[in-house]
Design brief:
33 strands; elongated; 894 residues; alpha/beta; single chain; eight-stranded mixed sheet; eight-stranded parallel barrel; 47% helix
């Protein structure tokens, strides 16, 4: 029985619950072994061993002994010895982190082959070519992965042999040619490293395990973890497994199968199969596989058996399962299973179908989808007509619509993305080294591979549009162009439209139209399996969530759309947006006023316009709360640009008097740091009549709606309060004006008056501020800026990329709330506010209100609502429901 300090577990010793220790792949192999599936035996070196190795540069002292024991047990089970000259046992060495990182770390196959055992393999298999092909694969993989030889050197050698033979297929190289090629590979290793390829099988095994450990910190693995927010300190397990061979002839092969379509979620058995092929050939896309359905004809017995195993795994895991398998001379082996990556569409459909099948509960179905996926489904799609003839067809690997300039390598995709240009990354097939370009591009297009190729799996995981296997395209990365089978040439920089849902590629930019999901969310009407799944998930989220979801909206049109998307009110109505456009001249008149009379005239002109704005918004949100923020930005933002005015005056023959007055006003209002200057409540207190005009407009709008029979629920929010005294003065003025309007109209205007908490001082003195507030609305954009002491725009344009790269930030604090710093201030303020006023309403109206991860924090912090842009409302509703489930799970675990 294994002890807690064990670093090596046989597949027979583990289980799915040990994914943290054995990695996802190792835990899956152990679980399948427990289920009695045909899994080649092996053992797993734990993530703890990896972490110890990475921390010290040395393997744990006892690891070598444990590996030797595990290898001896494996040899007894198989009845063969690793690398024996007569009948060798060969093993594969594969990575296996807790979270799937497809292709990001290393794999080495055929460990145990050397100059002697290759002859034994040829004899026992009866196939000399197979033996030499396996040996050259080992030398190539080992040389690149373990000994650090650049992979292009091996590829160039293979290409030379194929050119000499006049073929483009590795399969056309016979045994003598492969033997020569293997010797050339060994010579390349000797020349590049000064060392020989190791003939000792145990040395091969130990070197391969260390190389997999090292690959955890490889560039592509680090980039992938950063993109997927996977912690850097988890380490990878290493799986050592007896080799089975799919490259033994037409009765052998290798493939990848999934229990449902990972692109659409449709029920069925999907995947790719490659006859007479080994291990990585399907996933890499270097050869074109056939649909899995063709295995039914090629090997009916294996096809039926595979179907049985897939059903067993899906029923056991209660989810989409992704399975790698090999057929060795008619015998089926299962090499790996994991919960399969899927598109956003597939995620919703699969969760809904499993719920309908009563395989999972409604809560579990909700937990399996998220707001980011829902947002992707709301993106527009191409508005095609029968006249839009595709340039090419391929496999619809990851849905969506993307338009961009064609690029042929990662570096160019990154360069153009940095310049703000959308791109389409075009490759024959992608490799893990293409990850940076896949992240930078809007879509990935390959001429080879299927739904289980590297490009497809990674793109689905990232939510990128992807079309694979567009065989009619010839991709030439050297001349940087692609050519269709009809002779159309597309050069780098030309525009393509890629439809990942239909699997089509179009020349030029196609027009976009609203998605079916977006329309369904606004109308509440299902138009098919996907929209039915989305609406069902949202309905359940609404039934369990505690947080209300409100909208940031400044116009009646935005308010109406937000309500259609499920908003339960407006959490932020910015009044300054109403001063733009053709009203700017009235604001200028107010600012330029030389006396109280002129200022009052300008404000009087603005009053009916503001009243009309508020009336329209209150009507659109009738019966729901509308939180109206009084003017917040500094006044200079409503005036022309300082430099432009100065240039205009300097170049004018007869300078305009009004321009001179404007420049004088800009100079007078100029501040070194306007974000921390005369704005918010300070502006309302400093500019006579401004606050009163806005409050009167709100009061009169409410009174008007009451006369019309409406149910207006306006709330007045005072921005940028830093001290209770500011809020008391502003509240006194607000209540005075509301009382005047109530007396004039006969309306009851008992409106809630609250404040934005957006300064650290306000958060720290929240108990005193709460004495004068009916509600707190947290402006987390400014609270983040003032807490961190940095301007969002300037920081994101300068040092943010460096901070993300160096892991100072795991994610931008403006994207997801900084729980440790800003979040702590929020929690303190909520707690202090409620201690004074238990009925104090709390919400958030910054951008964090629509961020999925931040919503979970606001739920835990005890907020009443989050507010976000109308487009993000459905995702926020979903995450508010999921927050209840995750919080319940956390409580249960305690």
């Amino acid at each position: 029985m294994s002890t807690p300090t064990t670093h090596v577990y046989a597949f027979t010793e583990g289980s799915r619950e040990m994914a943290g220790l054995l990695g996802g792949k190792g835990a899956g192999l152990a679980e399948m072994t427990r289920l009695g599936l045909p899994v080649p035996p092996g053992f797993t070196v734990t993530t703890e061993a990896c972490k110890a190795y990475l921390a010290t540069g040395q393997e744990p002292p006892e690891l070598g002994i444990e590996e030797a024991r595990a290898l001896a047990d494996l040899e007894r089970t198989m009845g063969r010895t690793l690398g024996a000259p007569d009948d060798p046992l060969l093993v594969s060495v594969r990575s296996g982190a807790r979270f799937s990182m497809p292709g990001m770390m290393e794999t080495i196959l055929d460990i145990g082959l050397n100059d002697e055992s290759v002859a034994g393999l040829a004899k026992t298999s009866g196939q000399e070519r197979f033996a030499w092909d396996s040996y050259r694969r080992l030398v190539q993989m080992f040389g690149r992965t373990v000994m650090g030889v650049h992979g292009d050197l091996f590829e160039q050698a293979i290409a030379a042999h194929k050119a000499q033979r006049g073929t483009r297929d590795d399969h056309d190289l016979d045994a003598p040619e492969l033997a020569v090629l293997t010797e050339e590979f060994k010579a390349i290793i000797r020349r590049e490293t000064g060392q020989d390829f190791p003939q000792d099988p145990v040395e091969q095994l130990q070197g391969a395990i260390r190389a997999v450990f090292d690959s955890w910190n490889g560039e592509r693995a680090r980039v992938y973890r950063r993109r997927e927010h996977i912690p850097d300190d988890l380490g990878t397990a290493v799986n050592v497994q007896a080799m089975v061979f799919g490259n033994l002839g037409p009765d052998s092969g290798t493939g990848v199968a999934v229990t449902r379509d990972p692109a659409t979620g449709a029920r069925g058995m999907y995947g790719d199969y490659l006859p007479d092929a080994q291990g990585e050939d399907v996933v890499s896309g270097v050869r074109d596989a056939v649909p899995l359905s063709e295995l039914k004809t090629l090997d009916p017995r294996s096809y039926v058996e595979l179907g049985d195993h897939l059903r067993t795994l899906e029923n056991h895991y209660r989810d989409l399962c992704d399975v790698e398998f090999t057929v060795e001379r008619g015998r089926l082996w299962i090499l790996q299973t994991r919960i399969g990556k899927r598109t956003a569409e597939a995620a919703f459909r699969i969760a809904h179908d499993l719920r309908e099948e009563k395989t999972i509960t409604a809560d579990e179905a909700l937990a399996r989808v998220d707001g980011a996926e829902l947002t992707r489904l709301m993106f527009p799609r191409f508005d095609t007509t029968p006249a839009d003839v595709p340039l090419a067809h391929g496999v619809p690997a990851s849905p969506g619509a993307a338009v961009g300039a064609v690029v042929f390598d990662s570096a160019e995709a990154q360069r153009r993305a940095a310049a703000g240009q959308n791109t389409i990354l075009v490759r024959r097939e992608t490799t893990p080294d293409d990850l940076p370009g896949m992240i930078a591009a809007q879509a990935v297009l390959t001429s080879r591979g299927g739904k289980t190729s590297h490009a497809a799996v990674v793109a689905r995981g990232m939510g990128k549009v992807c079309v694979c296997g567009a065989e009619s395209l010839t991709v030439d990365p050297v001349t940087r162009r692609l050519t269709t089978d009809t002779g159309v040439v597309v050069s780098e920089g030309d525009t393509l439209s890629v439809d990942g849902t239909a699997g089509t590629v179009h020349l030029g930019a196609l027009p976009l139209t609203a998605s079916d999901v977006g329309r369904a969310l606004e109308t509440g009407e299902s138009t098919g399996p996907l929209t039915e799944a989305v609406l069902a998930a949202l309905a359940h989220a609404d039934s369990v969530r505690r947080l209300q979801v409100r909208a940031n909206a400044d116009t009646p049109e935005d308010a109406a759309r937000a309500r259609a998307l499920g908003a339960q009110g407006i959490g932020l109505c910015r009044t300054e947006h109403m001063f733009l456009g053709d009203r700017r001249t009235l604001v200028e008149a107010m600012i330029l006023a030389r006396d109280d009379t002129a200022r009052e005239e300008a404000l009087a002109a603005l009053l009916p316009l503001q009243r009309e704005d508020f009336t329209g918004i209150l009507k659109a949100m009738d019966g729901l709360p509308v939180t109206i923020r009084l003017i917040d930005p500094p006044l200079h933002e409503f005036l022309p640009d300082r430099t432009a005015l100065a240039v205009r005056l300097a170049s004018a023959t007869h300078p305009d008097v009004h321009d001179r007055e404007l420049l004088d006003a800009v100079e007078h209002l100029h501040e070194q740091n306007p974000m921390l200057g005369l704005r918010g409540v300070r502006l309302g207190l400093a500019v006579p009549g401004l606050m009163a005009m806005q409050v009167r407009a709100i009061g009169e709008a409410v009174a008007h709606r009451l006369r019309e029979g409406g149910r207006p629920r306006a709330e007045i929010m005072i921005p940028l309060v830093g001290t209770a005294e500011e809020l008391r003065l502003a509240r006194t003025e607000t209540e005075r004006v509301l009382a005047e309007v109530a007396a004039e109209t006969g309306a009851c205007l008992d409106l809630p008056i609250g404040t934005m908490i957006e300064l650290p001082r306000a958060a720290l003195t929240a108990a005193r501020i709460a004495e004068a507030a009916d509600f707190f609305s947290f402006g987390t954009n400014d609270l983040t800026q003032t807490t961190w002491g940095m301007s969002r725009d300037d920081a994101e344009a300068s040092f943010f990329p460096l901070y993300l790269e160096k892991k100072i930030f795991s994610v931008s604090p403006f994207e997801t709330i900084d729980e440790e710093g800003v979040g702590r201030l929020v929690e303190l303020a909520v707690e202090a506010g409620h201690s004074v006023n238990p009925r104090l309403e709390t919400g958030v109206c910054g951008e964090h209100g629509g961020d999925p991860e931040s919503i979970h924090f606001f739920h835990r912090a005890g907020f009443d609502y989050v507010s976000c842009s109308p487009f993000r409302i459905p995702a926020a509703r979903l995450e508010a429901g999921r927050a209840v489930l995750s919080n319940t799970e956390a409580s249960d675990s305690r």
